[in-house]
Amino acid sequence: MLLKFHDLLPEELKTKYFDFKFRDYPDDEFCKELLKQTILSYNNCKYYKDKICNKFDFTIPDEISIDNLETIPYVPTDIYKKSGNRTLSLSKVPLENIALFSCSSSTTGDPSIVPRTVEDYDQLQYNSIKVFTEFFGWEKLNIESKRCVAFNFSPDRLFMSIMAKRSVKGFEYVDKTRYYTACMNKPWEFYGYEEYLVKMKILKTIWAIISTFSLRGGFILDVTKMLKMIKKIKETGHWKNTEVSKILLGGSPLLMNNMFEKRLLKENVFIDLDGISLVGCGGGGWDGVKGEAKMDEVNKSRFIEYYEKVFNIKPKDIRDIYAFTECPTLFGGHWSEKYQDFLLHCPDTTRIIIRDLENLEPVSIGEEGLLEVLTPYGVNGSINQAVLVDDIVELISKNKCPECGYKGATFRIIGRLKNAQGKSCSSLINWIY
Ligand SMILES: [Zn+2]
Fold this sequence. Notes:
Elements: H1 2-5, H2 27-44, H3 46-55, E1 75-76, E2 100-103, E3 113-116, H4 118-136, H5 138-141, E4 147-153, H6 157-167, E5 177-179, H7 182-191, E6 193-196, E7 198-200, H8 203-212, E8 219-221, H9 223-236, E9 238-239, E10 242-251, H10 253-264, E11 277-282, E12 289-290, E13 293-294, H11 300-311, E14 318-322, E15 331-336, E16 341-345, E17 351-355, E18 368-374, E19 386-397, E20 410-416, H12 417-421
Parallel strand pairs: 1-19, 2-5, 4-6, 4-10, 10-11, 11-14
Antiparallel strand pairs: 2-3, 7-8, 9-10, 12-13, 14-15, 15-16, 16-20, 17-18, 18-19, 19-20
This protein binds zinc ion.
């Protein structure tokens, strides 16, 4: 059984980017690589050539420029849905080059499955550490003998692989499929001490899951252990004989919100973590639907207040990461008093276009639309160099964050198209599947 769950990625990916160095991704290089990935998609993927390029009446140009990125054909995230049964036909490399398939968590039982190469995972790891560096002060977490302690509001990776297998049941390469978020959690396990807070009550539940693929009951959010550990760290400055640099609370905002409302606020818990803590929300779920967790929508402003009230963690120390399975990009964000929302930033590996809901033309600053994400880095396995997402976002700035100055486009999430209009982005366009 253990073999079924073993890590299929190279060992060095665990630690390769601990000594993180920024790479340069200038515009001309970006365009050249994007053209290269578009040509590879065209030549190696029949689906891309026949369905997508045809749809857009697209022929391969001699060059791509940063001013006409909107002319590149994009694929809707929906094409990756398991129910479409076309995962293997969305690849642009031979099957033996696919290291792992990434899948999304899904409430509907219809997750996305994306084929990825080792190089793609390498880029993903780079992208992750880049966000951790820019938004969580990664390099300061691990200084001399000091290490960080990370509380992750998520199940551990073994548990996650069991759940992933369950959600992609019936897919041919189920043993080579992992949750997309698992690879972002991984570096923390090797960098400091990581405590996963979603646990199963009894061993019996594990066997229930394995044998019947049922997830009924048996879950706990181990807040008790977290509070005990925090108390110990506050008293001694240490955890398991290691000096603690920072305490991180990361993962699902839904579960964090649940912890406040169902327990900590009721019990009037107060622990002063000001200056020694950072919060990193991840994996979305602000709208109340995230994987197996079905809970009420999180009110972001109230959520920020909870952190200050219970842990004295200030809004400036609360960060968000927006990412989705179909793209290798992670968008880091910080809280904005003005918008009462997280402002998300587009890294230099990526460009975004926000498209009008009616005519799909790029919108201007201050307007809303569907998010398109373009990147030629980390997309060797599939045709996902330009992807249109179901999320409606507001374009805040095209080249620089008005609040922190981060270079690149800035946006915030307004909501999901599915929730707003009861349809997905593919239904706006008459897609031929
Ligand atoms: Zn900013």
